[in-house]
Amino acid sequence: MAVKEDCIFCKIVMNETKSYCVGENVLSLAILDINPFSEGHCLVIPKRHVLWWHDLTEEENQSLFSLAKATAAKIKKVYKPDFVAMYARGRRIPHTHIFLVPTFKSDPLDRFFNALEGFQESPDMLVELKKSKSLEKTAAKLRSL
Fold first, then answer.
1. Separation CA 8–CA 35 (nearest Å)
2. Can you tell me the distance from the alpha carbon of 123 to that of 120, in angstroms, rounded to the nearest whole number?
3. DSSP labels for 45-61?
4. Is 49 assigned a catalytic role?
């Protein structure tokens, strides 16, 4: 299994750094985030050091998202949030990870996503992206690779 010595998540996988594990499968690990946005905020990480989730093998990807689903179910049962926000990261800590954050109406993360959705719906540039001609052009660019 590929690990990177200076990666905090690799150290967690190798039991060299303390973590608060809430679930695990053969290829992935679910832990509490030590800088949580809310109580129950978890991270799901692959055990192999990989920068981006889309560079995972199919088996690793299935493992990661399966564990994320199971962990989100636990979060929903315990905290009864309005929503469990999920997003993949790997920028600040360059080891891909999925954030699972229980959110409630009007909490900071809910307000952030509401603002982001409002931004997505309003600026002229983004409105142009919704038009059929723009969508066709974008799809053609992505299909060409």
1. 14
2. 7
3. EESS--SSGGGS-HHHH
4. no
Tens-place pLDDT, residues 24-56: 999 999 999 999 988 999 999 999 999 988 899
What's the pLDDT tens digit per position in 58-74?
999 999 999 999 999 99
Domains and CATH numbers, the chain: 8-104 (3.30.428.10)
* Lowest mean pLDDT across 6-10, 110-114, 122-126, 139-143: 122-126
Q: Within 10 A of 37 (CB to CB), how many other CB atoms are there? A: 16
Whole-angstrom Cα distance, residue 104 to residue 82?
Answer: 5
List 41, 49, 95, 97, catalytic entry = 97
